[in-house]
Amino acid sequence: MSGAIEAFVIVSGPDDPDRNIFHMSLRIAFAASSAPLAQAAKASLTRRYGDHTEAGADVIVALGGDGFMLTTLHRTQDLPAPVYGMNRGTVGFLMNEYSEHGLEERLAAAEEEVINPLSMKAETNEGQIHHALAINEVSLLRAGPQAARLQISVDGKVRMSELVCDGALVATPAGSTAYNYSAHGPILPIGSDVLALTAMAAFRPRRWRGALLPKTAQVTFDVLDAEKRPVMAEADSRAVRDVVRVDIRSEPSIAHKVLFDPGHGLEERLIREQFV
């Protein structure tokens, strides 16, 4: 693994009833979604491996689906411990396969991916400023019966004076297989320094599907005719209503460390997703 966890392994003696279990000096904190399946998994794993506080843990194990994984990453972004997810939800793109056995060995062998989130600054029609971070994407969505009218600028230069659409989003490579892919946006290699700008149901220009931008770019959406055509902004499902301007950029100062079983990291998953 890329230096995220160091631990030693001690094999139990022959008289130990758990002689086939490896015990390590690894401090694990378990976090689970409210789903009964995830809560039952946490109870079972805690009995087997113990449980530490997240602040004092070497690694945090998140039990749930992708939504809970995103919540855990946001909540623990200031802690040094990486996060290893096990799927007790539905899709589980960011999660590893669930198993109660051999967890310490899996953690010791895990590979680390580093994800930089997007930073969103959203201004409402009342002049309020909202800040949020998004690991997957920041999206703008029409909030009324009429299509949204958006002006798009990149690094302060207007690139599209009017986009009439149901919405638009900016996605990271890690989030490119989520909402972005459903909106027919491209899947981005995890190591690429690129962001995807994707339109949803574009009416004018009718066939415009978006653009690929350097990771360093700042994207600004200005909402045109905001009172008649209200728009909401979302950063990983955290919504701000009645926005008039949204600035989006990558946030390199924040690095989410996510652990995956060897051969099942984000790079492999992103490639595999394109051949399904």
Automatic annotation (TrEMBL):
Role this protein plays: Involved in the regulation of the intracellular balance of NAD and NADP, and is a key enzyme in the biosynthesis of NADP. Catalyzes specifically the phosphorylation on 2'-hydroxyl of the adenosine moiety of NAD to yield NADP.
MF annotations from Gene Ontology: ATP binding; metal ion binding; NAD binding; NAD+ kinase activity
GO CC terms: cytoplasm
Reaction catalysis annotation: NAD(+) + ATP = ADP + NADP(+) + H(+)
InterPro entries according to UniProt: ATP-NAD_kinase_N, ATP-NAD_kinase_PpnK-typ_C, NAD/diacylglycerol_kinase_sf, NADK
Enzyme Commission numbers on file: 2.7.1.23
Organism: Marivita hallyeonensis
Superkingdom of the source species: Bacteria
Subcellular location: Cytoplasm
Protein name: NAD kinase
Residues given in the record as NAD(+) binding sites: D66, G67, N136, E137, D166, A174, T177, A178, Y179, N180, Y181, S182, A201
Keywords, in A-Z order: ATP-binding, Cytoplasm, Kinase, NAD, NADP, Nucleotide-binding, Transferase
